[in-house]
Batch of 2 targets.
Target 1
Amino acid sequence: MLALAPDDSSARAATGLARPAPWSGTGACGDLVWGLCAGSGKNPYQAIVDLSGPAYRCSCPSRKFPCKHALALLLLWAGGAVPDAPDPADYARAWLESRRPEASGESTAPGSTGNDGATRRADARAQRVAGGLAELREWLKDQVRVGLAASVSAAGGAGHTDAIAARMVDAQAPGVAGVLRGLSEVPGSGDGWPARLLRAYARLHLLARAHERLAELPAGLAAVVRSRVGYTTGRQEVLALPAVTDHWLVLAVRDLMEGNVPGRRIWLRGRDTGRFAMLLTFAGGGVWQDPETARLRAGTELFADMHYYPGQPPLRALADQRDAGPGRGKRPDAGGDVDALLAGTADALALDPWLTTWPAVLSGTPVPGEQSWHLVDEAGSALPMSNSDSLWTLLAVSGGHPVTIAAEWNGRTLLPLTVWHGDQAVPL
């Protein structure tokens, strides 16, 4: 959502407003989200967002588009803080009516409905995204044609993707924009940076080509492409999908501080199904969008329905129909070995070539080294671990013996997040 912001100051301001206090009369119906936000004047500002565009309208005097109120409303909606309503508020309905083809002088075929208008808006967005991704492909070709070294001389390597990232926001492909912004830090970032940058460029090129053939792709892969580009799936739409009911052990909790809004990623695994699930929540304005999820801690277990977002392999989910609260869980069954992790990651990448993080439950012994530490399994296979102070805690708990850990694997290094001492989970 913040990728839609016209500038950083708007994103920061929206983050501060993305909390219940200044809002009233919020609601969502179909593709329409609306709400009243208290401002400095006597009357609250009327903020409306048409998600199919997206398109925005706000009664505030800001010249920025979208304004901070529309962005904050989007953040609230994404966090599940906007209730569903049977009908739009009057001011939201009036704005929507003004945007329909008949209001702008466009012809409408006899018998057409509002669904036809939604379809046209969705088609218009798809065309904008396609146009933006076509420009991205040309930009990627230019980077290779000129040479990767040129990206270092561009503002010292920082910001060389800013212009094309902004174009992706204009093209309504915020997922691609976020990836591009992250690549600004790669040039000159240490040994092997050209290979890392070229791999990232190749994945973006593959994503652009996949979007061109979106209608031809299998449903699961098409959902992955749409998600990576930046199309959103509403909370109610996810909750309407079939549920997986199980006792879910919270494997690990990781706080995310890379963006403008703090986030929290929670990894779980089903006791009976053995399936992984990932819950994600953000703290707009210092308030968690989903406090119940944010309070989960490693080592606890909850009985709940998990509804997975569309895509493959199923990973991100929403929890629903929980019991009274999480209780203390047991240590997970003996973790897998390195070969099993690499094989599982390869299978996942075959389903989602843009996957960058995969959960792991491993048994092994942490071994310090001069350049990097490794986790060595029973067969002697080893994986390098990300350098951090928490590795000393991991070593202290293990005492030089094998332990069970939960971690994230990014294809290069393992990031341990939890280690078990008996049945006690120790966050790292």
Note: Residues 102-113 have pLDDT under 50 and may be disordered.
Target 2
Amino acid sequence: MRTTAVVIGAGQSGLAMSWWLAARSIDHVVLERGEVANTWRTERWNSLTLLTPNWQSRLPGFGYEGDDPDGFRTMPETIAFLEGYAKRVAPPMHTHCPVTAVRRTADGYEVVTAQGTWHAQAVVLATGGFNIAQVPKLSETVPPGIIQLTTAQYRNAESLAPGAVMVVGAAASGAQIADEIHRSGRPVTLSVGEHVRAPRTYRGRDIQWWMDATGLNDERYDEVENLRRARNLSSFQIAGYRDRRNIDLNALMSLGVKIVGRLAGIRDGKAQLSGSLRNLCELADLKQNRLLGTFDQWAAENGVSDSIEPPHRPEPTRVEASPPLGLDFGRAGIRTILWATGFRPDYSWLEVPVLDAKGNLRHDGGVVTEAPGLYVLGLPFLRRRKSSLMDGAGDDARDLSAHLAAHLGARSAVL
């Protein structure tokens, strides 16, 4: 089978790319391993809501049309939204069509699936950056009586084994899950590494309103000083709750969640904890206040200050004078460890030599320069700070579809 371009993945990025390819009259197919929004359907916990307000779900030719623009979508609502977008885009899509190999050919690429093989001049990898849970090697030393889960496997607190829970990782997912499990009545210990503290609202406006209004979400990958670090930063420590409550470490400690340092090792059934907790919290506070200062400056320069609440700063993170350096799992009654330690992409089927030593795709803003005609979408800070948000998929797809069209034009000129 032949087509001009193959898009792999039918989440927001793949659908947005299909919209732009159709707008440019580029023949293509979209291949999806399951159904539309497959990851949202199968790898998220029950109570998860989007971190971005409804108004921010902006995709090419599509957006929020309900009566709660400042609310946050549940998982069923998110799936329905993407299904609605798929109907609007009406892509040439093949579902339940997992890709088993992508290879270079003399005139482009060969994409092998269970439903057949496609030959195309261009391929867009829109499978996202959250495919495989990154569980540290020290997980192999966890005592055998303790159950281990990742955030992709967790569904709700009621399904956990009896006993206390340790959540490892304090970005958005870890903080939300720690909050939920503790509110269910179970003791929770949260192991904290580097994190990005932020309030859900500031001066009466949502944090994402500020990120959008100030242009920070649109900051480009070629404008930041340390792109590698920017791409590896964890998500804001926020949640999309109806009451807009914060879930920073102070809020969790007020609930009764026990906060400890980064899990550095496990020996003889005991956790070894890093002594850097205070430093990490002070750094997170410093960066948060620096961000809020940027908001204040923008508000003053754009005549917004008088129409919103006055500036303020959250209380510094409370850290005990001498945080513990160890934790006995048995004495703490911990029966479950939940790894909220991030994800990485899965390119096990990509047979094109464009991966670095850590298995990451080498690319320049989504353009795989070592393999002309190969593109990637949906990775953190791909082209913009908002690239991994639903709101960023359309802009990135627009840019890369233009590059793809130019590539096809250049090939046509040569041929």
Note: The chain has two domains: 5-131+345-414, 134-339.
